[in-house]
């Protein structure tokens, strides 16, 4: 029997550098990335099916009605959601799957999959967060303001996560997450079924 893969949820405020860290994790080939559906408009460099599946509000609502999403949430005026089929398929094949999602979606997934490993990524300090958010130049002023406000609300929920990783350097953050995933395979709660054979 194939052992199920691990579901890894990575959250963190806009400007925490999640995107780059997740890209590096995927490059290492040890993980599959779930591509989300969103109603947000694509940024210049974003490609359909690579960064997101871009949907109209009606299309997104249809996905909710047809039970195609594992979770969904509204973030700064747009909808985001995780297509269910891809995630379930990869986990059943024994692959480790990463969801890069915000805090409300993360808590929905943790309810369905209590064994999911949740990681909250933060920049070294608030100044760095602002600098990264403004510096990447992908959002207008109003959106940046919304995202900064949302960032402080999201950080309040940090204690709900299993682990916190400080993204001081991308390489460090990637290594820390790899260590967390390796260690999680040996959590005692994963052995409750197996030890029944020993009785
Ligand atoms: P962005 O617009 O910067 O790509 O993403 C905004 C926020 O939405 C980020 O915190 C990102 O992690 C989150 N997000 C991306 N995809 C999903 C998803 O499928 N579900 C949820 N709940 N959040 C998502």
Molecular structure report:
With 199 residues, the protein is of the alpha/beta class. It has one domain: P-loop containing nucleotide triphosphate hydrolases (Rossmann fold). 39% of the residues lie in helices and 20% in strands. It is built from seven helices and nine strands; from the N terminus they run E-H-E-E-E-H-E-E-H-E-H-E-H-H-E-H. The protein has a five-stranded parallel β-sheet, sandwiched between helices. Helix 1 (18-27) packs across helix 7 and helix 5 (126-135) packs antiparallel against helix 6 (141-155). The radius of gyration is 17 Å and the shape is globular.
Short description:
The protein has helices spanning 18-27, 57-65, 84-92, 103-112, 126-135, 141-155, 170-184; strands at residues 7-11, 31-33, 37-38, 53-54, 69-75, 78-83, 96-100, 117-122, 163-166. By secondary structure, it is α/β, with parallel strands linked by helices.
Terminal CA distance: 22 Å
Unreliable stretches, pLDDT < 50, 5 or more residues? none
Number of helices: 7
CATH domain class name: Alpha Beta
Which secondary-structure class do the elements indicate? Answer: alpha/beta
Global shape: globular
CATH topology: Rossmann fold
How confident overall, as mean pLDDT?
93
Topology:
Layout: E1 7-11, H1 18-27, E2 31-33, E3 37-38, E4 53-54, H2 57-65, E5 69-75, E6 78-83, H3 84-92, E7 96-100, H4 103-112, E8 117-122, H5 126-135, H6 141-155, E9 163-166, H7 170-184
Parallel strand pairs: 1-7, 1-8, 2-7, 3-4, 8-9
Antiparallel strand pairs: 3-6, 5-6
Helix pairs in contact: 1-7, 5-6
The structure holds guanosine-5'-monophosphate.
């Amino acid at each position: 029997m194939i052992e199920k893969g691990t579901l890894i949820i990575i959250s963190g405020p806009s400007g925490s550098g999640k995107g780059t860290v997740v890209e590096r994790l995927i490059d290492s080939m040890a993980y599959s990335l779930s591509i989300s559906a969103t109603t947000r408009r694509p940024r210049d460099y974003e490609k359909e099916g690579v960064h997101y599946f871009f949907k109209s509000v009606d299309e997104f609502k249809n996905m909710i009605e047809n039970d195609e999403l594992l979770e969904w949430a509204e973030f700064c005026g747009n909808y985001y959601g995780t297509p269910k089929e891809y995630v379930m398929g990869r986990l059943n094949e024994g692959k480790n799957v990463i969801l890069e999602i915000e805090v409300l979606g993360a808590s929905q997934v943790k309810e369905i999959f209590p064994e999911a490993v949740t990681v909250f990524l933060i920049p070294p300090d608030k100044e760095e967060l602002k600098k990264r958010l403004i510096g990447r130049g992908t959002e207008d002023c109003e959106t940046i303001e919304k995202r900064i406000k949302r960032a402080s609300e999201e950080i309040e929920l940090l204690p709900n996560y299993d682990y916190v990783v400080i993204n001081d350097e991308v390489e460090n953050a990637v290594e820390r997450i790899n260590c967390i995933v390796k260690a999680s395979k040996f959590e005692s709660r994963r052995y409750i079924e197996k030890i029944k054979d020993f009785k």
